[in-house]
Each structure stands twice: as C-alpha cells, then as structure tokens.
Amino acid sequence: MILMNNFQAEPAELIQQEVAAVEKVIKSGWYILGNQVSNFESAWASHCRVNYAIGVGNGMDAIEIGLRALKIGSGDEVITTPMTAFATVLAIIRAGAIPVLADIEPATALLDPASVERCLSSRTRAVLLVHLYGQVRNMDSWITLCNHAGIQLLEDCAQSHLAFWKNKVAGAFGAWGAYSFYPTKNLGTLGDGGAIITNSEALANQAKILRNYGQSQRYHHSELGLNSRLDEMHAAILTARLGWFDFFSARRKEIAKAYFDGIKNPLVHLMAEPVESKCHVYHLFVILCDKRDRLSNYLVEHGVDNLIHYPIPVHHQVPCRSIRRDPKGLIHAEVHATRCLSIPCHPQMSDDEVNKVIEAINEFK
C-alpha cells in the first residue's frame, strides 16, 4: 500500500537526530518552557521572517490564544470557512466569539472574498483565513478588504508551513498566524504542538501570558489563561526536523508537479495550480471527482491510500447547524465536500510510487 504518510520510511539520520535531541532534554532535567522552547521559537520566527513566535500546545489553542490576545470574544463575529478542520471553528467558539461561515472559491477551495463581504456585519471583528491544503493566494486583496472594513486579518496556517506570497510567509500578513505541528504537518513533531507568529511585541507578550495560566509573572495571574505550552521535548524534536524542512518541502513540490503533468483522466479534475511554486507547499494534494467514493475504493483496491479532507462541512456538524452564514448559501463548499479526495504526497514517496498513483488514477473508469 502506498500510504498517505509513511513515518517509518523517514531517513535514519533524521531519526538519530531526533533521538539525540530527546536525550539532550532528558539529561537537562528541564522539561517545560526552557532553552529548547526558546531556541525553537527564535528559529521559527526567523524562518517565518517575523519578530516573534510563541510555542503553544497545539494549533487550535494557537487560534484561541490569538483571538483572546486581541480581546476578540463575547458578541464578536469572526468570518471563516466551512471547508476546514473543525478545530478552526471550535477555537473561535472557545474564545467566546461567534463564527460566521462564508463560501469558498471552486477552483482553490479557499475563502471567497465576495462571500465574506456578504457576511460582514457591525459585529464583525476579524476574518480568519485558512490556507487550505498548503496554498497562499491573493493576499493583497485580503489586506485591502480587511483594511476597508476596519477588521483584523487572521491566518490559520496549520497546513501552510512556509508557503510564500510575494516574499512574505503565511501568517505574516495579518495580526497573527496560527501554526500546528501535528505529526502529519509539513513540519510536525512526535505528538501535538503549535505556535503563534506575529510582529507585535504586545500581542506576543499577551500570548505568553495566556498560554501559561494567565501568569504575568510566577504566581501572579493577571487574567484567566490556559495551560497550553509547547514542551521542551517537542521543541527539541521540531528543531531537529526544521533542518530537513527545505528538503522535504522540495520533494512535495516535485511530486505535485508530477501529478499535474501526469494525471490525465477526464473523470478526475485537478485544483488550480499556484501562480508561483512557492505559494503552495502541498500539505495535501487534492483531486476532484464526481464519483469520488467509487474512486476512493478503487484506489485502495489498487494499493493507493487516500483520505477525504473534509467530507462534512462545518455547518453540517451537529453543534454548528445554526451558525450564521452567507445569505446566498455555501453551495461551493457543499459541492466540494462531495468531490474532494486527497492522494499521497509525502516526501518519503519514491518516483516509482508516484508513477503508480498516476497510473491507477488514469486507469479509473
């Protein structure tokens, strides 16, 4: 089976580096908010070309802490997409704010600016973009829209590690960007982890307070916070893996190019290619098919793993059926959810495996 992710096939040298990093933490005797976290935060901020990175427990907490740091909460509306992991909307709700759902653009599955404008109200405080599948597009128009509306531009970067738009990294366009380091991410640890990136010193300081019980200094709780701290072990692992990031990212793009060049089945449609290669880091490579479920089963029968991201849009989830949405509906998100299929696109894939995926898709009838 050609797997969606194959951690057991990772380079032996990387595994050795991870083991050494973990051993260093164990021998240090310091496991929470120490030098490893500080070092990784500095390294990640540098890679993202921003002033600050704040390590937290996971990507969902990064969004919640970011919202709370901006005092976005009770009665405030945050516009986002129904085509995302549930954590995006759950974080808004946990922060006390009200999610509002706008539709997507069919060619990219990214948030549609025209739909967002229809969702604006006097209570709108922010737009939370989700750089779905690893792509960053049209950020100039989003900056203009948010500035004109007088609202915050926020970024969910859980799938878009170091994707660029005009020499600026995902997460650096608005007030903050929220990253996840879940194991399957382009930069992932061996468990949960996350980070907020920002250029605002005040926001960074507030995020540090919120992640650590709301402590302004030890035992002094200036407000109600969370227990959401990237720990030393995962920070050390992430630092080791960061050294392999460019290599792994380049391989994902090679695989994606092979798919764009090689998949020719008229029953299978490809998402829009990026304007520039650096705009998409291919956390996921997604194809579209009207016979998606049959294609999924066919691929498994022919030794190709696959997944659906995401089969149930947020507004069809039981707790979210009454959420306010675009008055014209969310038809593009609903159609996309019935057609989208993610195929393997991870850096451990061999050229032979890539060719077998292409061959299987092209032979589907």
Automatic annotation (TrEMBL):
Q: Can you name the source organism?
A: Candidatus Brocadia fulgida
Q: Which Pfam families match?
A: DegT_DnrJ_EryC1
Q: Which UniProt keywords apply?
A: Aminotransferase, Pyridoxal phosphate, Transferase
Instruction: Please provide the Gene Ontology terms (biological process) for this protein.
Output: polysaccharide biosynthetic process
Q: Which residues carry this modification: N6-(pyridoxal phosphate)lysine?
A: 185
Protein name per Swiss-Prot or TrEMBL = Pleiotrophic regulatory protein DegT
What is the phylogenetic placement of the source species in the record? Bacteria, Pseudomonadati, Planctomycetota, Candidatus Brocadiia, Candidatus Brocadiales
**EC number from the UniProt entry:** 2.6.1.-
What domain of life does the UniProt record list for this protein's source? Bacteria
Could you give a GO molecular-function term held by this entry?
Answer: pyridoxal phosphate binding
In the UniProt record, the gene name given for this protein reads degT
Which positions are catalytic residues? Answer: 185
UniProt family annotation = Belongs to the DegT/DnrJ/EryC1 family.
